[in-house]
């Protein structure tokens, strides 16, 4: 009877995990990922260190590496449909595909500056920003790029265009154009913080995020920028809005923030990748989104990042976390990372699918911090296993797959 109760309880814990707001996907790389762009729920591309380009056509169930032809870091990527996309990065790198990444062609940027951001509004018209206030523009899909006068020598980290004319670029400066970049006008954001990312959904409504948990919002094309409370001091590296109300920001230590009211309120969500940094986010509608970050981390939501367990986020500080094991699937060993925000007695145990305890990895008092435990399954058979942590009132269970 006790075993039945335990198995039922275990199934409940698993169901809680299934209901969790963000789930990790297998990227197949340990390179840091810096940019991601989805054009619909299925088709997306991620880019990062070492010239890494990953492609999915099934919503991230599988990610396939593509040949970029470079080892330069790629900082950002922008697709306008499933076929046409551009990636930019270190040493003036610009890569272009018109076949969904089957082939990537290097384009002449005319610079060796690091290019940080790119935004295309259709397959021909796009803008790139980078170091030294560099702004490049193309009207022919990148066959040729010409420079535009930004009026600054400060680095520009991000750019967002909503049509061929209206765009905003940010970092220490906030620059605005309403004529396709023929002229760029400096705006007063009200902050001296670095702004790492910006997202506009139309010519008026936009958000910029940056260091110290900074979030600024405009509803008039940047004439006025209003500071919004983020509830965090962590760096925010990426932001994506799908309309004027629904948006998500991501940053250091697995930070994910969500708003459904245009930023009047921002709610912290559990990313399940503490303590890894998250660099970029792409949503195709209010519910479906993908986030990329350190060490090839990719997390996905299909419900806007909310959980079916009421108040679970508020009751669980973000410093508490059990990360998905890596690698997964694995053979014969894998790493399990967890974080606790205060001194607690911690147990970390492994179970089989019947709820039978296989081994105890941790069974002692731990101080606040991030921990990594190696699990060696050389004596186990292939199959599905579960690992469960308990630290005070914090309890969480995750699944791992041993494939020999």
Strands, helices and their partners?
Blueprint: H1 2-19, E1 23-25, E2 33-38, E3 44-48, E4 53-56, E5 64-65, E6 74-79, E7 85-89, E8 94-97, E9 105-106, E10 115-120, E11 126-130, E12 135-138, E13 146-148, E14 156-161, E15 167-171, E16 174-177, E17 185-187, E18 195-200, E19 206-210, E20 215-218, E21 226-227, E22 236-241, E23 247-251, E24 256-259, E25 267-269, E26 278-283, E27 289-293, E28 298-301, H2 312-315, E29 321-322, E30 333-340, E31 344-352, E32 357-366, E33 369-376, E34 383-391, E35 394-402
Antiparallel strand pairs: 1-28, 2-3, 3-4, 4-5, 6-7, 7-8, 8-9, 10-11, 11-12, 12-13, 14-15, 15-16, 16-17, 18-19, 19-20, 20-21, 22-23, 23-24, 24-25, 26-27, 27-28, 29-30, 30-33, 31-32, 31-34, 34-35
How would you explain this protein's 3D organization?
This protein is mainly beta. The chain folds into 2 domains: 2-12 and 316-402, Sandwich (Immunoglobulin-like), CATH 2.60.40; 22-306, Methylamine Dehydrogenase, Chain H (7 Propeller). Helix content is 5%, strand content 44%. It contains 2 helices and 35 strands. It has helices spanning 2-19, 312-315, and strands at 23-25, 33-38, 44-48, 53-56, 64-65, 74-79, 85-89, 94-97, 105-106, 115-120, 126-130, 135-138, 146-148, 156-161, 167-171, 174-177, 185-187, 195-200, 206-210, 215-218, 226-227, 236-241, 247-251, 256-259, 267-269, 278-283, 289-293, 298-301, 321-322, 333-340, 344-352, 357-366, 369-376, 383-391, 394-402. The strands form 9 sheets. The protein has a 4-stranded antiparallel sheet, with no helix packed on it. The protein has a 4-stranded antiparallel sheet with strand order 2-3-4-5, with no helix packed on it. A hairpin with a 5-residue loop joins strand 26 (278-283) and strand 27 (289-293). 45% of the residues are buried. Residues 1-20 and 308-318 have low confidence and may be disordered.
């Amino acid at each position: 009877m006790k075993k039945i109760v335990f198995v039922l309880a275990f199934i409940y814990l698993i169901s809680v995990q299934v209901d969790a707001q963000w789930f990790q996907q297998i990227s197949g790389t340990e390179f840091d990922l810096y940019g991601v762009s989805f054009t619909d729920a299925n088709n997306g591309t991620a880019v990062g260190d070492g010239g890494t380009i990953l492609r999915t056509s099934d919503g991230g169930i599988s990610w396939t590496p593509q040949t970029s032809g470079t080892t330069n870091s790629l900082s950002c990527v922008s697709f306008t449909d499933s076929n046409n996309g551009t990636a930019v990065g270190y040493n003036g790198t610009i890569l272009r595909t018109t076949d969904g990444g089957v082939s990537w062609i290097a384009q002449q940027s005319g610079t060796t500056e690091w290019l940080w951001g790119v935004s295309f509004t259709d397959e021909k018209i796009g803008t790139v920003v980078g170091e030294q206030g560099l702004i490049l523009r193309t009207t022919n899909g990148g066959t040729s790029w010409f420079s535009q006068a930004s009026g600054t020598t400060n680095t520009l980290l991000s750019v967002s265009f909503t049509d061929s004319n209206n765009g905003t670029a940010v970092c220490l400066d906030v620059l605005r154009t309403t004529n396709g970049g023929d002229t760029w006008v400096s705006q007063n954001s009200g902050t001296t913080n670095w702004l790492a990312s910006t997202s506009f959904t139309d010519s008026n409504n936009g958000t910029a995020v940056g260091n110290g948990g900074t979030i600024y919002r405009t509803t008039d094309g940047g004439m006025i920028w209003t500071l919004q409370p983020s509830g965090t001091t962590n760096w925010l590296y990426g932001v994506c809005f799908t309309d004027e109300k629904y948006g998500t920001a991501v940053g250091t230590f697995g930070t994910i923030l969500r708003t459904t009211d245009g930023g009047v309120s921002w709610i912290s969500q559990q990313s399940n990748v503490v303590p890894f940094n998250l660099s970029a986010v792409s949503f195709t509608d209010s519910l479906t989104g993908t986030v990329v970050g350190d060490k090839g981390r990719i997390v996905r939501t299909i419900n806007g990042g909310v959980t079916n367990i009421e108040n679970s986020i508020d009751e669980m500080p973000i410093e508490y976390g059990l990360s998905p094991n890596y690698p997964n699937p694995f053979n014969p060993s894998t790493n399990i990372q967890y974080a606790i925000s205060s001194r607690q007695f911690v147990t970390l145990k492994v179970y089989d699918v019947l709820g039978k305890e296989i081994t105890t990895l941790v069974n002692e008092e731990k101080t606040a911090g991030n921990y990594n435990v190696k699990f060696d399954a050389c004596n186990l058979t292939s199959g599905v296993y579960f690992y469960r942590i308990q630290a005070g009132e914090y309890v969480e269970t995750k699944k791992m797959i041993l494939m020999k």
